Amino acid sequence: MAAPITVDRFVKELVKLKGEMDLGRLASGEYDQRLSRVIQELRDRGIDADRAELTSAIDGALDQGVITAAVKDHLVRRLGLT
User: Fold this and answer.
1) Sequence spans of domains, the chain
2) How many beta carbons lie within 10 A of that of residue 73, not counting itself?
């Protein structure tokens, strides 16, 4: 079994997706697909953090403009953080 994903790597993936969107390398649908893959990998491998750390990382990504409020809500729902 693969090692759990670190919170740092998760945030780096979100930053990478944002950068590619900003540069016009990803269409909206492609962003959604890539985000779904990130979420699926987290669910498959797990994350090396507790609920509070993961929620804090997602909140930080929102505060930094890496994700939108809609993406935050989607992540929270899909990762079972509600």
Assistant:
1) 7-78
2) 14
Phi and psi at 47, nearest 5°, equal -130, 145
Place of tokens 């987290």: 42
CA dist 18 → 11, 23, 26 (Å): 11, 9, 9
Closest Cα partner for 65 from 17, 31, 5?
A: 17
What pLDDT score was predicted for residue 39? 93
The whole-model pTM stands at: 0.90
CA angle, residues 47, 55, 7, in degrees to nearest 5: 35
Averaged pLDDT, 27-52: 92
**Integer Cα distance of 5 and 28 in angstroms:** 25
Say if residue 27's pLDDT is above 90: no
The CA–CA distances, whole Å, from 58 to 1, 6, 25, 27, 64 equal 25, 13, 23, 22, 10
